[in-house]
Write a structure and sequence with these properties.
4 copies of one chain form a homotetramer.
Chain A: H1 10-27, E1 32-36, E2 42-47, H2 55-69, H3 78-87, E3 98-103, E4 106-114, H4 118-137
Antiparallel strand pairs in A: 1-2, 1-4, 3-4
Chain lengths: 138, 138, 138, 138
């Protein structure tokens, strides 16, 4: 009748944002960083000085999409991804830079990063994932 | 032709969120905490475990409103405030818990807090304001 | 089969914005000023320094409403006005400060003003109306 | 904790709109002209007689995008630009005709022009930029 699944606390979400922010600083690329829960609701966010403000929306949509599909964003065929974006009014995005937080095979939340190049965005999101995985392993 | 005004950095915004979060923990009231720039664009955010997720919207709207009016939220007459909310599609809110960051007489941003009672929300927002003012005075 | 109706040119719309702006300056009340055509589409706009940015939406909605009803805004019973606002998703507003431009009994456009008190908003909108009427009489 | 940056006054924004409008008249191409602040909020606007009314949205989106990216619009790869537009629900546009106002290396606002050809739109936007730069140099 019931499932149980792990959920990120706000402590974990803030840790992810801070770790992603530090990595973005080390790359010299200001970013928007969004962390959402498994239901795609915002948990933590930071927009760094110099990051594009329209990426408030893209970083959040990336995190929401990664939570929805429980997978990294950007893998849909281009036309299909665009149609999904149109149909969901931007809620689904095929932009790269969203990664799910998977713990013991269960979705616990997701992170989305936007304002840099796709590679920068992925690297900064991964830094957030790595930080929470390290903390959980301790 | 030009004005000059101060703007919160992401360091200031994260400091405000962290200070507000600590105060909310000390009150035992989980909160949504949003910090925006002077133009009402999101800078930093945290939703604490147990806080209502619809207050993602209310806390952000409180911060946006406090930035727009450069004053605390909640002071409009009830009917007028409701009409402003409807006309702006929720961008303006008359809910209490939004406070502007005023530096040397200039608006630098705002904080909005939502999920507790109005008094709790104001107190937690004020903790964020106090933290940034202390940091600037150092 | 056809009606003919007067339409504001952009010259008329800019004249209205400038006249309203000068009156707002003389009152010491910064304002958002929007002029729309008879179909409620934006023709000219100015947000003065210090005016609330959420009033970009309210001033425009006031102008749109005054064009739609071909009458000043704010005259609906409170409950009915609020319901109209909700039903039109903010397109109709019962806030005061929107005035139609009526030329020889025909609607030619409308002006909406927002950020001050209701009386200020109406006075500034009226200054815009007066300016275009004077210009037409010349 | 704080940054300081220049902001366009409404005097500067109206000057930009007027200069752009004159250039559009000289080209015989009616235009929509939008000027926004650094946060992408509308400061001044004019739709000229004969300009497409849907370009109210495109001209404004161009100005908002140029403010967000602090660069001219239209430079993203086609697929990526389209996806950004969908994800931000039209807030980001890859259409040409948006230019930032950069003063001493700082973003102070942006202008967007729409209804003509891409080259016309860019030329009219540039006329607005030129006017404010000349005024600041005086």
């Amino acid at each position: 009748m019931l499932n149980h699944r792990p959920e990120l606390t706000d402590t974990a979400a803030m840790l992810m944002v801070e770790a992603a922010r530090e990595h973005a600083l080390s790359l010299g690329v200001p970013q928007n960083i969004a962390v959402v829960d498994a239901g795609g609701r915002l948990l933590a966010f930071c927009r760094m000085q110099g990051a594009k403000f329209h990426s408030i929306e893209t970083s959040t949509a990336k995190a929401v999409t990664a939570a929805s599909i429980a997978a990294p964003t950007g893998g849909a065929p281009a036309d299909f991804g665009l149609m999904l974006g149109v149909t969901t009014q931007g809620q689904f995005t095929n932009l790269k830079g969203g990664l799910p937080v998977i713990i013991d095979g269960h979705l616990a939340g997701a992170i989305g990063v936007g304002s840099g190049s796709p590679d920068d965005d992925i690297a900064v999101a991964q830094a957030g994932i790595d930080a929470v995985m390290r903390a959980l392993a301790d």
